[in-house]
């Protein structure tokens, strides 16, 4: 590994954990909020440098390849923009007394610890280390969900902790089974946990052990992806935690568990005698899409509404990767990126809207485009993007998923389109009442940062109109790697 490569990889990991330790002891909200933004920007720039430096050779613990660079750059970018949004959002929470300076110091330290855990999970070349990193990211978000210390917030955090612990226990058992399958081939010791070694030798592993391992891994990491019926923690965590954490949960943390699933899916694909993981992923993805689409109609809390939208879209992404093939994998990658950018932008708008109106109940929010045009029209554009209207980026990814499914499994395509149309109807129905009509609730001006929201929406619009050729080539290459 060259010095520059080592420095870039180390920076993506050390900047978040180092700044977390610093923010845990620094006094003053404004100082820690600014340091949070600076640290997030530095991590993002370090991640971008991974595109141009000489690719380091995989080590026993860390690797950089074409697949995880996509996740790392997306993760650090959304982490940076969310830190900007968070600064103005959290300032309002301090002014209203919902949070104290001590809790804010804890919040910023946990934010960077969470970013460290997610970055480490993406970079891990050791499946045991990846499990630990996912657990670190999970535990920090549990603490942040309960930071308001209300009964509802603590209940949501406790539910998240219990269900997340069950999921991570399943994932740990699956990881152990993979090691047991590898041990007769690669021997005892560290090599049985190194993913690049496992992938190279997977064709000789016991297929029965791999099959059982993947079922446990899918249940474990699928809980963190938010797939139905393993999703119960997700709506409560979104509704009761700070909105920046809702943005990170939907836009980033779900992707971490998805990444782990894709790594193990590649492992099974390398063993011709093992079961094909695609049908299980496609079934669970389609079930999540249709279930969440129906559930959207009964939501009365605006953050819960978009939490179920996240379940819907993670279902689409898992379904696309389950279908497999170059086109479906390309569509899954594109949809993952577009969903992360769009859903975080929606939560940026929703966070400030709930602060202005003093409520998250949809019935008490009306006429936003009249009283707060920037937030109202930002939410309109975000919902138009998330339901897949052209020319926004999610339209392109959903079109590719549907067309590739029609070409191979027309009956599944009918169910897929039904779920998409069902979700479209629910979200547009809610948007109409919230954004338009006679204004209701507070009309006080918003002290908000609009830059993160409109930056994300601009990227989603640009991707829907034109995808740069180098990006298309990169995604095509990664889609082929996924099998």
Distance between the termini: 28 Å
Inertia-based shape: globular
In terms of DSSP E residues, the strand content is: under 5%
Radius of gyration: 21 Å
Can you write the helix and strand succession as a string? HHHHHHHHHHHHHHHHHHH
Contiguous uncertain segments of 5+ residues = none
What is the residue-averaged pLDDT? 90
Number of strands: 0
Structure class:
mainly alpha
The largest pleated sheet is described as: none
Description:
The protein has 483 residues and is mostly helical. 77% of the residues lie in helices and 0% in strands. The protein contains 19 helices and no strands. Helix 1 packs antiparallel against helix 2 and helix 16 runs antiparallel to helix 17. The longest helix has 36 residues. The radius of gyration is 21 Å and the shape is globular. It starts with a helix and ends with a helix. The model has no long low-confidence stretch (mean pLDDT 90).
Key terms for this structure?
mainly alpha; 0% strand; 483 residues; 19 helices
Helix-strand layout with pairing:
Blueprint (H helix, E strand, L loop, with lengths): L2 H21 L5 H21 L16 H30 L5 H23 L3 H19 L5 H36 L8 H7 L5 H19 L7 H8 L2 H27 L8 H18 L6 H22 L1 H33 L10 H4 L1 H14 L6 H16 L1 H26 L15 H15 L3 H13 L2
Helix pairs in contact: 1-2, 1-4, 2-3, 2-4, 3-4, 3-10, 3-13, 4-5, 5-6, 5-10, 6-8, 6-9, 8-10, 9-12, 10-12, 10-13, 11-12, 11-17, 12-13, 13-15, 13-16, 13-18, 13-19, 15-17, 15-18, 16-17, 16-18
In short:
This protein is an all-alpha fold and 483 residues long. 77% of the residues lie in helices and 0% in strands. The protein has helices at 3-23, 29-49, 66-95, 101-123, 127-145, 151-186, 195-201, 207-225, 233-240, 243-269, 278-295, 302-323, 325-357, 368-371, 373-386, 393-408, 410-435, 451-465, 469-481.
